[in-house]
C-alpha cells in the first residue's frame, strides 16, 4: 500500500490523462497489455536508456517496449536512417534497396535464404502458419503450452491457461485463450509440452499424415524465460521431418535479443521457417518471415499469396537496416553481455543473502527473476511460481526510477545497447530494497 501511495503521488498528470482517455480509448489504453496497476503511465519521450513520463519522472527503461527496445531510445543510427527516409517519402507499396539489404542481413544471421516482411509479430506467425498448411496440404498444427505467438486465431490456444484446465502433462488439453476465437479454427491446434519430445511424438503418431507442423518459441519468453534442454530443438527437427511436418521458430522475442542470430545460431538448429519482429525494427514497426527455398517457394510460385499494404514499408526498412548494420553488431553484444552478467550476478547474490526461494534466468539482453527455488522446464513448472511478490517488485522498481514490464511472473527485463553501468546499479539497488522488505 505504501509503494502504491508513493506511485500515485508522482503520477498526477498520468492520472488526469487516464481519466480523460477512458472516454475515447477503450479501457484508457491502446493495447490491453498497457494496463498497469494502479493506473497506466503515459510516456512523453525517451532518450538512450531512459524514458520520461508526462509528470516529468525519469526512469531507466528495462521494459524495452515489450522487448523491442534492444537499440534503446532515439539511437543516433536509427534517427539518421528514419530522418533520411521520412523526407524522401514514407510509403510506396513497392520494394526498395533497403528491403534487399535487410533480407540479405537476416539471411546471413539466421541461415535461411528467402524473406518477406510484415507489420507485426502476429502477422509474421499468421503467415508462417498459413505457409505450413499451404506447403504440406495438411491442416493440423501443434503449438506448445505457454507459448505466445500473437493474437490470430490458430495460435490463441493454451497461451496462459489456468491450472484447473490444463489436463495431463503428457497430453495437455487445448484451452482457448480468449473469447471470440471460433472453435472450428482452434480445434485444428494441438498442444504439446515444452522440453518433451515424447509429447510431440504422441501427437504425430495419433494424427499420422495430418500435421502440417509445429510452431514454437525455441526459447520460451512468454512464461518467464525457459531454455530448451540440450538436444531438444535438434530432436524436434528430426522428429517432425520423419513425419513430413514442418518446424517454425517464432523468434519474435528471442530474435536479436537472445543473440545476433537468435536461437537458430545459439543452438545450431535451422528450422523451415523463422518469424521475427520487435527488436529488428530498432523501434519501428516491422515483422519478418524467413524460410528455406522449398517452403518460401510456395510464396514465389503464388500458391500462398503473402500480402500487405504496408509490408516492407520504407521507414521500417530504413530503421531495420540501421539496426542490423550499425546497432546489432558484435561490440553491442559484448556490452549487453557485460551488463547482463553483472545484473544476474548481483541479483543472485541478493537472493542468496536473503535466502529467497527464487532464481535468475537470462539469455542475451533478456533476464527474469522466477520466484521458485527449482528450475522451470515447462509451463507446468511455471504455474508453480509464487506470484505474490510481482506487483511489489514492480512498484518498488518504479518508485526507485526503473520501469519494468508490469507482469513480473511472465515478463522479463530487456537491456538495450544504450544502458550503462549506473542503470544496472540502480536496478540492483532497487532489487535489494525489495528483497529486504520481502525477507522481513
Ligand atoms: N510471438 C512472440 C514470441 C511474441 O512474444 C509476440 C509478442 O509479444 C508475438 C509473437 C506477437 O507480436 P506482435 O505483438 O508484434 O504482434
UniProtKB/TrEMBL annotation:
Its cofactor is pyridoxal 5'-phosphate. Keywords: Aminotransferase, Pyridoxal phosphate, Transferase. This is Aspartate aminotransferase family protein. InterPro entries: Aminotrans_3, Aminotrans_3_PPA_site, PyrdxlP-dep_Trfase, PyrdxlP-dep_Trfase_major, PyrdxlP-dep_Trfase_small. The keyword Disulfide bond does not apply. The keyword Translocase does not apply. It comes from the Bacteria. It comes from Ferrimicrobium acidiphilum. SUPFAM superfamilies: PLP-dependent transferases (SSF53383).
